[in-house]
Design goal:
With 560 residues, the protein is of the alpha/beta class. Helices cover 38% and strands 19% of the residues. The protein is built from 23 helices and 23 strands.
């Protein structure tokens, strides 16, 4: 029977930057131990950037696990991290990795690709001298030419007697079950006496099938991860293998999966997709798909990029333009205002109100990315005179955001910042902060908030916001909410009118016109709540002053 190695905390770290909840790690490791998983890989020992499971420092691991499990504990090193100036850096290696006799770890796996194969003997010898069992993972071996394989084998033959396992890592998820017997026969011939391991990825939806085939072919060891958590599409699922084996401790494993990994999967979004399958077909590094899927880009754009050419090595520069959103500010400016007619053109110390807002916006995104959306030719003339761009919209827009949505149809940007045209003191840094959060929460509309002052608490002009613990908007009202039996609560928050939308979200907002509660409250953002679309609230430094009346205008003139 093949041994099982669970590498959740190592491979899954690609989604969490190797940072995990301590309780999650404790429950995971000891549940795996009780399920008799042979080897548990806790992460990397690496000098490169990353959280605590990229370092796996001894005392840290002991503090989290509390007691050493019966299962063998393992860490991985990426060989290229220890190759500096075209040499294996033994001093760096010995700084990072302590002798096995002083460690809870018993085993190390070395991940390497063809360019670093010449350094494998030194690394294996160094680990054996420190007292560790050693496995090697020859990355992307399925993509090598015959010459590259033939060049590698004499080097690997020299250390095969020193290692526990020689792994076939299905790096790009290209392996199919029928090829595994060929791999085994070929490698056993080239490396007599080697014990074979298989590490699968699920790009083709075959991770479990490949792993099961490897077990039936008597591969010596196979990898798995909880809920399939791993780089890119992910791996063969631990619980699926244990279910197939009718493991007696499956119930505890399933509880850990349900408690920790299913919510994490929903947040991090690993699992099969057409994008990951495309990387397999095109022999493209899966990190391209991982980063693009978790970006703001549309499915069509991602698919076109991944289908264009093979990219075996990940190069962030190649997708940099797709990972950095194109952002503009659109300022809705309606000439007719009940309380202050002609408000966008109201004089603020020599400049129209709307131009003061546009100048603040320009400090955040650049003047060339600021647009005023209006239905009025007088506003058009004033904007052009001051060197800003205009999008002419209809006079049938029920709200400012509807006007922005109409203007967005004419503009080619990823994110649209809606800045109200009557807030000339809005802070550029708050606009920038809102955009940064949109890049993080690209599937939610962004809105901003700050503290309510005593004066604002009961004012009908102040929109109060109530949020969930995850900072999603729960409700907005002109009334002082939330309230208490005694009256107004001690801590209230009010809206700061900075919104960030995608073009699709603006389309969702505009479709169907005003909603019932939006009309009652006269608050635009409520429309999204009625449509069950999430709004993530971002706290900003302080509020601006909206110019709604002549008194507001006088106050702002003094402040400017």
């Amino acid at each position: 029977m093949s041994k099982l190695l669970d590498c959740t905390l190592r491979d899954g770290g690609y989604y969490t930057n190797w940072t995990f909840n301590d309780d999650m790690v404790y429950e995971t490791v000891h549940a795996l131990d009780r399920a008799n998983i042979d080897i548990i890989e806790l992460g990397y020992k690496s000098p490169t950037k990353g959280g605590p499971y990229k370092k796996c420092n001894e005392n840290f691991i002991r503090s989290v696990l509390k007691h050493k499990p019966e299962s063998v504990l393992c860490f991985m090193i990426d060989l290229k991290d220890y190759v500096r100036h075209n040499k294996f850096d033994k001093k760096l290696f010995e700084t990072m990795i302590k002798p096995a006799k002083d460690s809870w770890f018993d085993m190390c796996r070395i991940a390497f690709a063809y360019p670093t194969v010449t350094y494998i003997p030194e690394a294996v010898t160094a680990l054996k001298n420190l007292g560790y069992k050693v496995g090697v993972n020859f990355m992307q071996i399925d993509l090598l030419t015959e010459d590259e394989i033939n060049n590698s084998m004499p080097i690997l033959s020299s250390i095969i007697s020193q290692i526990e396992y020689f792994y076939v890592p299905d790096s790009f998820g290209t392996i199919i079950p029928s090829s595994l017997s060929t791999y085994k026969a070929h490698l056993k011939k080239l490396l007599p006496g080697c014990k074979l391991g298989l590490h699968t990825h699920d790009n083709l939806g075959l991770a479990f099938a490949n792993t099961l085939e490897a077990v039936l072919l008597d591969y010596d060891i196979v990898d798995c991860t909880m809920s399939g958590m791993g780089r890119g599409v992910g791996n063969c699922r631990t619980e699926q293998l244990l279910l197939y084996q009718q493991n007696s401790n499956l119930e505890e494993i399933l509880k850990v999966v349900s408690k920790w990994y299913e919510p994490l999967k929903e947040e991090c979004n690993w699992g099969w997709s057409k994008e990951y399958m495309t990387t397999s077909i095109m022999n493209t590094h899966p990190t391209y798909a991982q980063q693009l899927i978790n970006s703001f880009n549309t499915d069509d754009k991602i698919f076109k990029f991944l289908s264009k050419e093979s990219r075996k090595q990940f190069d962030k520069e190649k997708i940099k333009s797709m990972l950095e959103p194109r952002v503009c500010v659109v300022i809705p400016a309606r000439y007719t205002s009940t309380r202050l007619p002609g408000k966008p053109l109201a004089d603020l110390n020599g400049k129209p109100l709307v131009i003061r807002v546009a100048e603040q916006a320009a400090q955040a995104v650049g003047k060339e990315h600021v647009y005023i959306a209006t239905e009025n030719l007088q506003i058009f003339d004033a904007v052009v005179e001051h060197g800003f761009q205009v999008v002419m919209t209809s006079d049938q827009c029920p709200t400012g955001t509807d006007r922005v949505a109409e203007a967005a149809q004419e503009l080619d940007y990823d994110f649209f910042v809606n800045l109200q045209g009557d807030e000339p003191l809005i802070k550029p840094k708050d606009v920038i902060k809102a955009v940064e959060y949109k890049n993080k929460y690209h599937d939610k509309v962004i809105n901003c908030y700050t503290d309510v002052t005593e004066v604002d608490a009961t004012s009908q002009n102040t929109i109060k916001m109530v949020m969930k613990p995850n900072h999603e908007l729960m409700y907005a009202s002109r009334s002082p909410i939330p309230g208490t039996k005694a009256g107004v609560a001690d801590q209230l928050y009010k809206q700061v009118c900075i919104y960030v939308f995608s073009k699709e979200e603006l389309s969702i907002f505009a479709k169907g016109g005003k909603t019932p509660i939006e009309q009652l409250e006269d608050i635009e953002i409520v429309r999204l709540l009625e449509k069950n679309y999430p709004v993530h609230m971002v706290r900003v430094s302080s509020s601006s002053i909206a110019v709604d009346t002549k008194e507001d205008l006088i106050k702002v003139r003094k402040l400017i």
